[in-house]
Amino acid sequence: MTRQDTRRVAITGVGAVSAFGIGADTLWNALKAGTTGIRPLRHAHAEQLKVRIAAQVPDQCDLLAGIPTQTRPMLDRVALFALVAADEAIRQSGIDFRSGNLGARSGVVIGTGVGGESTHDEQSRRLYGENAVRVHPLTIVRLMANAAASHISIAHGLRGPAFVVASACASSNHAIAQGALLIRAGLADVVVTGGTEACLSFGSLRAWEAMRVLSDDSCRPFSANRRGLVLGEGAAVFILESLSHARARDAGILGVLAGVGMSSDAADIVAPDTDGAAAAMALALADAALVAEDIDYINAHGTGTQANDVAETRAIHRVFGGHAEKLAVSSTKSMHGHALGAAGALELVAVLGALRDGVVPPTLNLDAPDPQCDLDYVPHAARAMPVRAALSNSFAFGGLNAVLAVTRN
Predict the structure, then answer these.
(1) 253 in a domain, yes or no?
(2) Is 254 within 8 Å of 93 (Cβ atoms)?
(3) Same-domain pairing of 364 and 218
(4) What is the per-residue pLDDT across 205-227, written as a single tens digit (0 to 9) for each?
(5) Which pLDDT does position 1 carry in this prediction?
(6) pLDDT of residue 157
(7) 301 an active-site residue?
(8) Rounded CA gap, 339 and 81, in Å?
(9) Which of 174, 301, 336, 373 is labelled catalytic?
(10) Distances from the Cα of 336 to the Cαs of 17, 27, 51, 109, 276, in angstroms?
């Protein structure tokens, strides 16, 4: 086995919960079709909000099917999403963690930006709004940020490293990167990893409104008339294995996580920085032993805010030079919303689909050209084209950047 083989990590399973419903294929098929999951907000206090749209998981989804009765009272929505997505990913991978000693060599790394926000919001309302004397006895169990990783570990007998990564909108990509690094370091043979978020509480929505970065009608990444981001929720979870482990069990390989790049802007708590974003992309390329011309597609962070879209465009130009004009770049947040800590994981589903099917998902609502956003953003409809390798960008508040480089088998 070459040194490069030891640095490449196989993706052998994927599962998702999104605004389109349960299932990674459900998510990918919707993105490929250019379908929006952004709809009027379903919330008991929606009439008190100025922004009344979001990308919500449909109410008709039976998320509790397959969840043991005794586990259900302990689950905030954020952990429930992760459990459902992990179950799907593990089924697809065909892996049995309880066989032999595999559970001891398997870990869990999940990204989340805010953790058990639904529980926190509900119990705070009871305390401060209703003057309740006590809160639910399982409040801590539900709201603790590590709950998603812990429940996956318990459900599947994973006894290796297990933890949660919280780096705002880069949480998923940081978690997936940490999963790959655990495998490279020989600390695990298999890692269940991804991201989950259930951030659409009244308190969270009010807080985002106060920042004045939310759009009240649609998400228009890279368009001159963009007005801000649209919040979403959901989860996506992946099975990572060393290539040798995946090959030894003759696993189906969905894609290869060839490299990761991580950087910090060290500049501003909210304003994006071109230098930091460019550094993360360049590091991912170098880690994967790829050059700019190897990349066919970038799934952009593409939030639809004025500052982010310009900074990301400039960073792509800086890293890719003349090849930037040949890249297909799209923001799937225009369809699944900005799911914060789950965003990168949902977007990795899109990258895997593009690699497998040779179809790049579109950027919806690109209504007007912006001279400062001058790349090929695949407007309005998906594009059939071969995709050999792709980057998936996540750039977070706090100046925290994480980029994944993914290739076909």
Answers:
(1) no
(2) no
(3) no
(4) 999 999 999 999 999 999 999 99
(5) 45
(6) 97
(7) yes
(8) 12
(9) 301
(10) 11, 8, 17, 23, 25
How many structural domains does the chain have? 2
Asked whether residue 21 carries a pLDDT value surpassing 90, the answer given is yes
Taking 80 as the threshold, does the pLDDT of residue 6 lie above it? no
Pairwise CA distance, residues 114 & 110, whole Å: 12
Sign of CA dihedral 110, 112, 117, 120: positive
Q: What is the phi/psi pair of residue 290, to 5°?
A: -110, 155
* pLDDT value at residue 5: 60
| 237 shares a domain with 381 | no
169 is catalytic: yes
Phi, psi of 16 (to 5 degrees): -155, 155
69 and 32 share one domain: yes
One domain for residues 234 and 268: no
| 329-335-339-342 Cα dihedral, nearest 10 degrees | -60
Identify the active-site residue in 169, 199, 219, 373. 169
Contact 113, 341 (CB under 8 A): yes
Which residues have a Cβ under 8 Å from the Cβ of 25 and sit 6 or more positions away? none
Enclosing domain of residue 325: 259-407
Which residue among 217, 248, 279 closes a domain? 248
What band does 409 get if pLDDT is binned at 50, 70 and 90? confident
Query: What is the average pLDDT value for the chain, to the nearest integer?
Result: 97
Asked if the structure places residue 1 within a domain, the reply is: no
**136 assigned to active site:** no
Cβ pair 107, 187 in contact under 8 A = yes
Going by pLDDT thresholds of 50, 70 and 90, the confidence category of residue 7 is confident
For residue 76, tell me if it sits in a domain: yes
